[in-house]
Specification:
Layout (H helix, E strand, L loop, with lengths): L1 E2 L6 E4 L2 E4 L10 H5 L2 E9 L2 E2 L2 H15 L8 H14 L4 E9 L16 E10 L3 H6 L1 E7 L14 H12 L4 E5 L5 E4 L3 E6 L2 E4 L10 H13 L3 E3 L4 H6 L2 E6 L3 E8 L2 E2 L7 H15 L7
Parallel strand pairs: 8-9, 8-15, 12-13
Antiparallel strand pairs: 1-7, 2-3, 2-7, 4-5, 4-6, 6-7, 9-10, 11-12, 11-14, 14-15, 15-16
Length: 294
Amino acid sequence: MTERPGNPAWAWFDGRLVPFDEARVPLEDRALQFGEGIYEVIGVVAGEPFRLADHVERMRGGARELGLQAGVPEPGEWKSIVARLHRREPHPTAILYAQVTGGTAPRSHVPPQPPQPFFFAYLRSFAFPVPAEVARGIAAITFPDPRWQRRDLKTVMLLPAVLARKEALAQGAEEAIFVGQDGFVNEGSASTLFAVINTTVVTPPSSHRILPGVSTVVVEEICSRLGLAFSARPLTLSDLRRAEELFVASTALLLMPVVRLDARPVADGAPGSVTLQIAYHFQRLFWGQHGPPG
């Protein structure tokens, strides 16, 4: 579940394919200087993007909030962009990184003439978790949430997530779970959090506090198909401590059990049966007819 060495060779940049090393964002780009930009990360298997429509709709919604909707390609263009990148670099598995910036203008919080938003994208080879990794699970820590109040927007302001992930790695864990000052749990530094409590799969509800996860939609669909109870409601740190199972989901992790939290085992310290059942179906949906490598 890591990026493979080496930069991409090509990027979709300013409406065309260019060599990756020639793609340059100007110094006065508003994403660079003000964090005015949104992005999406999409899993790609054999050239096929997973849940592309959901990712595009989320980017379009965020872009409308920031006034950047003119920079988001039309839904029909996305498949063409992915296909052209994949033809140049036919990775078996990859992540599509796509970003819309606020465009370039002389530095001012609100420029007199709004600049044209700018879109770029590229594919990076990526190794997604396979069933053997899911069977082991990961460790996580909790981390006080220092972020702004519009966390439902997938902006490029990721410094808190970087700091949280650094602390997780320093403590021998793979993910950090943000906890608000009110004691309610929000989400992972780069994932959505789920708890199994009294056999019900629970995740924090959609609000300005958390990013609406595409993976959450997949998990809810799987629970419905399997007849598993699913609930979106607030979770506290004490809920996590008493949960029968914990897991996180994201584009990069797919669905991963959390077997240790703050150096303590979750339940018996092994992935739970509900989590493994959902993870099995998540993997089947993601890999489709190709099946996981190995």
